[in-house]
Automatic annotation (TrEMBL):
Protein name per UniProt: PAS domain-containing sensor histidine kinase
All copies of domain Sensor protein KdpD transmembrane, residue ranges: 13-112
Subcellular location field: Membrane
Broad class of where this protein is predominantly found: membrane
Record's bilayer topology term: Multi-pass membrane protein
Stored Pfam families: DUF4118
Length: 244
């Protein structure tokens, strides 16, 4: 089983079980606890699940937390019925807050700029930034980044296209994910798609062109490498922005 797939399955299982387990543990003390405090505890559980699993895990945890809060902490107990308006509001806020916070946590997990301690990654970023400042031609920067992307992502090849967007190839996003046909492509489990992947070059809302990445079948570049690739491409945007 791939490591990420196994981790995601564990997170989804935790999303279903953890809110129930915590709620059950608090039941003996429910006469001494305010329902708002119980709700806050469950929100913490939702955040913990979302921060360590896929987006769906956070959403499931939020729904699970709201369901068990209703079942165990609102009267009449052990029934999916709420008689007090205050409890109904608390349950609704728990669900809404859980969903929002879980999605934010999942986004933060995906968008986090990983502490790049690998000397090779740091050197690529540093060298490209220096070249961007000193190169007399943007073509020099583009060729440098093209070679860096090929090595960094284990590509069979890489080319740069100026001009408008053509077609709907898979796209490497700014957060290191790949979008294709309106869906998220699971790179960590499936590797890069077996066709050209575009990496768009924008600056100030202006589109300059794109790198077309030709993946090697079976290659699974880690998220850190993909984020570095996006950072390198941004250097090209900086170079083009100052010369065009």
């Amino acid at each position: 089983m791939p490591r990420y797939l196994g981790k995601d399955r564990i997170a989804i299982l935790a999303a279903l079980v953890a809110p129930l387990a915590v709620s059950a543990a608090l039941v003996p003390f429910r006469s001494d606890l305010l329902n708002t405090n119980v709700a806050l505890v469950l929100v913490v559980i939702v955040v913990a699940v979302a921060a360590n699993g896929p987006r769906i895990a956070g959403a499931l945890a939020a729904v699970s937390a709201a369901v068990w809060f209703d079942f165990l902490f609102t009267q009449p107990y052990q029934r999916f019925t709420v008689t007090k308006s205050a409890d109904l509001q608390t349950a609704g806020l728990l669900l809404a807050a859980g969903l929002v916070v879980s999605q934010l946590a999942a986004r933060a997990r995906r968008l986090q700029v990983i502490a790049i301690t690998d000397a090779g990654y740091l050197a690529r970023i540093h060298d490209t930034a220096e070249l961007t400042q000193s190169a007399k031609s943007t073509d020099v920067v583009i060729d440098h980044v093209r070679a860096q992307l090929t090595d960094l992502l284990g590509l069979r090849g890489c080319r740069f296209e100026y001009g408008s967007l053509v077609g709907y190839p898979p796209r490497l996003e700014q957060d290191g994910t790949v979008a294709w046909r309106g869906r998220h492509w699971d790179v960590d489990r499936r590797g890069l798609p077996d066709e050209e992947v575009e990496l768009r070059i924008f600056s100030g809302g202006r589109f300059y062109g794109r790198f077309m990445l030709n993946p090697t079948p079976g290659t699974v570049p880690p998220l850190q490498a993909r984020l570095v690739a996006v950072t390198l491409a941004d250097q090209v945007a900086t170079a083009l922005d100052t010369t065009i």
